[in-house]
Specification:
Elements lengths: L1 E5 L2 E3 L5 E8 L7 E7 L6 E6 L6 E3 L7 E6 L4 E6 L8 E8 L4 E3 L3 E5 L2
Parallel strand pairs: 2-11
Antiparallel strand pairs: 1-3, 3-8, 4-5, 4-9, 5-6, 7-8, 9-10, 9-11
């Protein structure tokens, strides 16, 4: 199983980025997919979660109204649209797939919000 994130980079405050996570090697449509982020010295925190059919989502309070998670089960891909970015959103963002029995992580993609 593999998760490969892309789309990170440097953006100015107030800007937008779209992260993608391509999955392979497992039945993507039967997994809950999440985005986490981590900064040095802090625990990894859940940012957004989307359930198997894509009808239900959960967000951290810090990103509600600014971030949107979505999935395309036909393409085995999950997305994170990030708008109105703030410097405190700077972190390594990780894609996660979980079905209670198996738990997979991507390698992470750096997002830096700075002027």
């Amino acid at each position: 199983a593999q998760l490969v994130e892309s789309g990170g980079g440097l953006v100015q405050p107030g800007g937008s980025l779209r992260l993608s996570c391509a999955a392979s090697g497992f039945t993507f449509s039967s997994y809950v997919m999440s985005w986490y982020r981590q900064v040095p010295g802090k625990e990894r925190e859940m940012v957004a979660r989307i359930y198997e059919l894509g009808r239900s989502t959960t967000y951290a309070d810090s990103v509600k109204g600014r971030f949107t998670i979505s999935r395309d089960n036909a393409k085995n891909t999950v997305y994170l649209q990030m708008n109105s970015l703030k410097p405190e959103d700077t972190a390594v963002y990780y894609c996660n797939g979980n079905n209670l029995r198996w738990n997979y992580w991507g390698q992470g993609t750096q997002v830096t919000v700075s002027s």
